[in-house]
Every structure is written in C-alpha cells, then in structure tokens.
Amino acid sequence: MAPSFLSVAKFVEVIIRRRFSSAGLSLQTLPIDSETTIQFWGPPPSLSPENIEKPSLLLLHGFGPSALWQWNRQVKPLSLAFRLYIPDLVFFGGSTTTSSCSNENRSEMFQASCMGKLMEKLGVERFSVVGTSYGGFVGYNMAKMFPEKVEKVILASSGVNMRRSDNEAFIARAKCHRITEVMLPSSGNDLRRFSGMVSSRKLDFVPDFVLNDFCQKMYSEKRKEKAELLEGLTIGRDDKTNVTPLQQDVMLIWGEHDQVFPLKMAHDLKEMLGKKAKLKVIQKTSHIPQTEKNSMALSCLSCYLPLLQSNCNIHIKKKTCVLIPHLAYVRNVTLKNFFY
Fold it and tell me: Which ranges form a coiled coil (predicted)?
C-alpha cells in the first residue's frame, strides 16, 4: 500500500469533501440511541429545518463505499433546490452500532429504522427519499414504516422484488461462489470485476496500484460487519417476493443493461407497486445510471420532484471526476436546463 501522501484515493477524497462543503453541507455525527451512531452530511447545525425554506431530501447510498463516494456528482445540483441529508448507512463510513449481531439487527429494516430515527433527531418532519441499490431497499422500508413522513420515493436500480433465484443468478453472472466475493472486493482485481458488473465503463486500463489504493480506501474497514449485513438481508432470502404497493408516489430509475438487477425486474416491480409507480429506463447504462449518465438521471428527478421544475434556468458547468466504481474517466459535464 502506498504512503498516504502518495495515495490517489486520498487526494480524490479531499476534492470530493470540498465539493460537499461547497454545496453547503457539513460532516456531522449523531447518536440516535444508546447503541447506534450515524455519520451524515447535512445542513450546518445552526440552520434548523424550520429556518430553511427548501424541502428535505434524503439520499441513501448503495452497498459499497461510503455516501461521500456515491453521491459526489449529485450534491451540487440537488443542493440548489433541496435541503440535503446524506448519511452513511450503519457499518459504512463513520456509522456504527453495538447492537447484538442478529439478522434482525443487520437487516434492511434495521437500517430503515435507524434512518428514521436520524431524521426524527434532526427535527425533519417531512422528506422525500432517493435510494440507490441497497439504499433503495432501505428507502422502500422507510416508506412503509413512516408513511406520514416520507413524501415521495425514488428507487434507482433497486431490486426490492429480488428472489433467491435472482440472487443466485447474479452470483453466477459474476462467476463467483458467494455474494461477498463480489460486494466486498479485497484487491484491485476484485474491484475491477466489481466495476465490470455495476458499470458499462471498464477499468482495464487503470493500473493495479491505483485500484489497490482505492480498494484499500473504500473497502478495508468493517468487512466482517458488512458481510453480516449481506447475511441479514430479508430481500432475496426466499423464492417469493414480499413487495406491496406504497401509499407514496414512486419513481423507478433503471439502467438498460443492469447486470445486478436486470431490466425485467424493473418492469415486474412497477407492476407490483401499482398505479402510483413510474419507470424511467436510462439507455446505454448499467447498474449506476446516476453516475454513468448523471444529467439524464437528474432530468428524471426534475420530472418527478416538484420543486426542481421551477428551477428551469439553472446552468451548471463543472469539471467532474468520475470515481470508483466510476473512476474510469474525467470529463467536462454541462447540465443546461436539465431542470424542466
């Protein structure tokens, strides 16, 4: 492992932290009960929810690195219209719990309960939820648990209708024996395989020492606990789904070539969720469409979240770094009038 002062991952992390800070967010830690502490990015504590006119939006990351790495392309544009709350789920980043190791305390419902407690502690009474992949599992359960608080739900590439056979098929596509081999990479080669499953952009040209550096930075901590989270999932445990319609409006955003949760699952999920669910498929993307085609994903949100529609003149031009598993390229991104 390279010294920290030579670490590419460390350098990139500093840049991303500045991006979050420039969006008006500060890194905070809050005990939500006697056992669990959540780290999150949110408005400075001096700005109480009632003193901010913007509606609240909770962003829930997927299974992988912390929230910092997964929402870095969305924070700036979304912060223009929303009061953002971006937590690390339990056992990711700086969030942790001392609760007993049982499936109940490692399930997606436990995560949803923790996020609900966080928002209550912060005094946020109403909010919408955006969850990607594993974060969508949490967001779906939050909508069921807190129907009076959750306004709208956006599930991005989140197969909450996954069955055991779907899980087994994914493991077969990844050419491994256990789900942890894919979801918890331990080397640069593992990370290259993981990226190949979740993104249409390959990392074949990225040197091994760079991938090893990012793997160490993103996946070395709390590996045992994260494996327990995978074991504790109730979604995908049986050969039948347990999806029921939500009382909230639901937007599904899916990549056309998703290899984790194939597109057919999105169409099936839309039918299970009923008339209040809509599906937007983003062409030529895989499991992380919000990263591969960020402007199109934001455009989907603009059609769905009312406040964005009033900000049609926003023009953003930024040099955007796309990182692991989006590390493959750096390009100029112009988002012009993506707010309809």
Answer: none
